[in-house]
Amino acid sequence: MQAVHHIHMKYGISEANYMNSIERQLFGPGQGSTIGPFLWLLLLTLIVTLLLPSTPQTCLNSVDGTKSV
């Protein structure tokens, strides 16, 4: 048995749905998932950690100039 997802809207529950199947797999957390931000932070941390010193870099400054990353 597979989970079937419907969207709850102001005017009721949608007739259209989506579900996970072998032909069309869903990956990642769904919208509103509480673990979503943590997974994106983990992914960003892994990407930044794997960057080599020779990789082109960017400097980001706050609007008031007090913070620089």
Description:
22% of the residues lie in helices and 20% in strands. By secondary structure, the chain is an alpha+beta fold. Strands 1-2 form a two-stranded antiparallel sheet. It starts with a strand and ends in a 19-residue tail after the last helix. The mean pLDDT is 83.
What letter string, H or E per element, gives the SSE order?
EEH
**Ends distance:** 48 Å
Average residue pLDDT: 83
For the biggest sheet, the summary is: 2 strands, antiparallel
User: Structural class of the secondary structure composition?
Assistant: alpha+beta
- How are the strands of the largest sheet arranged? 1-2
Poorly predicted ranges: none
* Overall spatial form: elongated
Beta-strand content bin: 15-25%
The residue fraction in helices comes out at: 10-25%
- Radius of gyration using CA atoms only: 20 Å
Distinct helical segment count: 1
How many strands appear in the DSSP assignment?
A: 2
Keywords:
2 strands; 69 residues
Please specify the SSE layout and strand pairing.
Layout: E1 4-9, E2 12-19, H1 36-50
Antiparallel strand pairs: 1-2
Q: Gist?
A:
The chain is an alpha+beta fold.
